[in-house]
Design brief:
It contains 23 helices and 28 strands. It is an alpha/beta fold. It folds into four domains: about 150 residues, NAD(P)-binding Rossmann-like Domain (Rossmann fold); about 90 residues, no CATH class; about 230 residues, Alpha-Beta Complex (Spore Coat Polysaccharide Biosynthesis Protein SpsA, Chain A); about 90 residues, no CATH class.
């Protein structure tokens, strides 16, 4: 690593200026130097690289310790794992955390053992644990604060023993004063799993984080200026030619704006040497009670990446105290701070050639892998300069199983796909080859448990991807359902299409008329859209003859996604939508809400996308892939069920299409033929599908798209 002492005249020789030598800044620096040959200058206000990941060898014990608290690397993202392995050697390590409560050591997150020790010794099995949680949880569909969220997850007993006072010590606020997301991100496990993280890759750098950062920044094109204040040299930067990546506190960058400071929590570290081989049984022990002031004790000697020279009969422990003042560590998640950050974010958008990234610039705590992935994607978006290679992030929702055969056509583009598990209460069946592409939405920072209570699945994924910025800096954002076919040709089509920035690519079973009140209250949604966007669309845009699609799956340019996503997320949390649905269900004497919620929101996506000016819609597919696959293979029983379901959808979707008795009779005849022919021969089964297709072409009934049909519906 090449260290320099910067002066005003030397700044002009660099192509890229990076503020901060932490994770985000170091990743950007490495890619700019290695892949583009850019001259990079890194400003770091501390006297070392690595940011708060910095570690060192303690002279008195020989123990490798972290100056700013432990950092545990874990990820399910293959791209991130490949990147860190390229820049260092890693040792597998699965972190476990215990809490001292009632003079007992219990595992955190809460699991069966935790409940046995603190609440009910009779809990033995997963079913016992689920029943205990249900009997103790305080139901709350839409928690408005951290206390309501915690009570909805663990009930009063565990809330008082484990969460309430610890939260007060950590944040200097009781849970009811914090946003619900703070407590919603805490997992509760109905089994004996005691690992703190469940990611596929969990590891520590063999030679420590400092060595990892030094290797990242060791390149002939990178200069590092330590103990240097960027703002001393800001006026020497030519922002028309030099690009700046700023990873410091965003409020400090705009300190002259008059908006005031953002609120952070800091940490004071108190070291103590103990003349013993070990002080405690585990590397980290939390102290939730008010009997002590500190939040936890960390003993670094337990970590496996220790050097061989450590003195075995002495150890170092570090007590951590949460403070209001000091170096910024944790953004304080309150509505007031969120509103203030939004003002700073708008200022950042007006800066010329300055990119703000990282936890301090985005005012959001993020895990190490999230910071690395964001930096990797930010490089692709802002400085790679390769417009011929646009990026795409595709998110596939699943709530119980993934059909591996639907993704057999994904080879070259698997790195662009993330499978998002929803509904933590259901066991997941995940093919081995797809496991490293899976994330669990309930483990994200901003997780809303109420969405599952309302029956959301695909919409829950959309909401949490947006709220947690998992889409990052990709050019194109897509959402698919777990039983829709995806292959390389679909992604190739999007990434190679010169008209892609102005195109909606969708995969859907049916063309829908949004005026069909059997499923959709067009007036309610259009009024909501007009109010949100300040438009004045007349109801005729729905009752006209334009085809809208029920957007079960779609891919759009980031520009379109970032415009419609806030409205969709507001709808997902809109109690009026739920009220409308409840009335709808009551009228139909139905209680299973999931498909109806989904149908409504898929039409909302359609409305938002098709009202965007200047966009063309291009279908990417076909018959529902689950039905198509079952019709092509499988037992007669499975083919019958799938074919019957396909026919039933034909009848349901044509019920109000026409009052013509001939249409009704033709639809009923198709259904009868389907029942009679399934199981007799494959040819007769497919004859039914062909009849549906032909009648659709003659506009006798509505039908599903055929695989080779790419009819373009242009906005008139």
């Amino acid at each position: 690593m090449h260290k320099v002492k910067t002066d005003a005249s030397s700044v002009a020789q660099y192509d890229i200026i990076i503020v901060g030598a932490g994770l985000s800044g170091s990743v950007i620096a490495a890619r700019c130097a290695e892949e583009l040959g850019k001259r990079v200058l890194v400003f770091e206000r501390r006297d070392h690289v690595g940011g708060i990941c910095y570690d060192y060898i303690d002279e008195k014990t020989g123990v490798r310790a972290s100056k700013y608290g432990p950092h545990l690397f874990h990820t399910d993202v293959g791209r991130v794992w490949d990147f860190v392995q390229k820049h260092g050697e890693w040792i597998t390590y699965e972190h476990r955390v215990y809490a001292r409560v009632d003079d007992k050591l219990v595992p955190i997150p809460v699991n069966i053992t935790t409940v046995q020790e603190l609440c009910d010794p009779s809990i033995k099995t997963n079913d016992d644990m689920v029943d205990w949680l249900k009997s103790n949880q305080v139901p709350c569909k839409c928690p408005s604060n951290g206390e309501e969220a915690a009570l909805a997850q663990v009930g009063q007993q565990l809330y008082e023993k484990v969460f309430k006072n610890y939260t007060k010590k950590q944040w200097n606020k009781y849970p009811k004063e914090l946003d619900a997301s703070v407590l919603q991100r805490l997992p509760v496990r109905p089994d004996i799993e005691d690992r703190y993280f469940t990611d596929r890759h969990q590891a520590l750098p063999k030679n420590g984080y400092t060595a990892f950062f030094e290797k990242l920044l060791t390149h002939s094109n990178i200069d590092v200026s330590l103990a240097t204040d960027f703002f001393t040299f800001k006026n020497n930067i030519d922002f028309s030619k030099q690009k700046v990546f700023y990873t410091g506190p965003i409020d400090h960058y705009f300190r002259d704006s008059g908006y005031g400071p953002l609120e952070y929590r800091s940490i004071r570290f108190e070291e103590e040497y103990v003349d013993a081989e070990f002080f405690q049984e585990h590397p980290q022990v939390n102290y939730p009670g008010y009997d002590v002031d500190f939040t936890r004790i960390v003993e670094y000697k337990h970590f496996p990446n220790q050097p061989d020279i450590q003195k075995r009969k002495r150890t170092l422990i570090v007590r951590e105290y949460s403070l209001d003042d000091g170096d910024p560590y944790y953004p304080v998640p309150t509505r007031t701070m969120a509103s203030l950050y939004e003002k700073y974010r708008q200022l950042a958008g007006r800066e010329n050639n300055v990119i703000f990234l990282g936890r301090l610039a985005s005012y959001k705590y993020c895990n190490m892998d999230q910071a690395i992935l964001s930096a990797l994607n930010c490089f692709d978006e802002t400085v790679s300069g390769d417009s011929a290679k646009p990026t795409l992030s595709l998110f596939v929702t699943f709530h119980k199983e993934l059909y591996s055969e639907y993704y057999n056509g994904l080879d070259r583009h698997m790195d662009k796909v993330t499978f998002v598990a929803v509904n933590p209460a259901r066991n997941k069946d995940i093919p081995e080859r797809l496991k490293n592409r899976v994330i669990r939405e309930w483990e994200q920072d901003n997780y809303d448990t109420s969405l599952q209570d309302h029956g959301y699945n695909e919409s829950s994924t959309f909401y949490h991807v947006y709220r947690n910025a998992l889409h990052s800096y990709a050019d194109y954002i897509g959402f698919f359902q777990y039983d829709m076919t995806i292959d390389d040709t679909i992604i190739d089509k999007v990434l190679s299409d010169p008209d892609a920035p102005n195109t909606i690519y969708y995969q859907s079973s049916w063309l829908q008329d949004l005026s069909n009140h059997d499923f959709f209250n067009g007036v309610y949604f259009l009024n909501s859209y007009n109010e949100f966007f300040g438009t004045n669309h007349d109801i005729t845009v729905i009752f006209g003859d334009r085809p809208y699609v029920m957007c079960a799956s779609f891919i759009v340019h980031r520009r379109v996604y970032m415009r419609i996503a806030p409205w969709i997320c507001s709808l997902i949390q809109d109690p009026n939508l739920l009220t409308y649905c409840e009335i709808h269900f009551a009228m139909r004497k139905q209680t299973w809400r999931s498909p109806w919620i989904g149908n409504l929101l898929e039409r909302a996506y359609a409305l938002a996308l098709f009202l965007e000016p200047g966009l063309t819609a291009v279908p990417l597919g076909s018959v529902h892939s689950q039905d198509r696959a079952a019709l092509k293979r499988g037992s007669a029983t499975s083919r019958f069920i799938s074919s019957y379901r396909l026919a039933l959808r034909v009848v349901r979707m044509n019920k109000q299409f026409s009052k013509n008795p001939i249409t009704r009779a033709a639809t009923l005849a198709l259904l009868i033929c389907n029942v009679l022919t399934v199981g007799t021969s494959r040819g007769l089964e497919w004859l039914f599908v062909w009849c549906v297709d032909i009648m659709g072409r003659l506009r006798i009934i509505r039908r599903e798209f055929s695989d080779d049909e790419f009819r373009i519906y242009s906005r008139k």
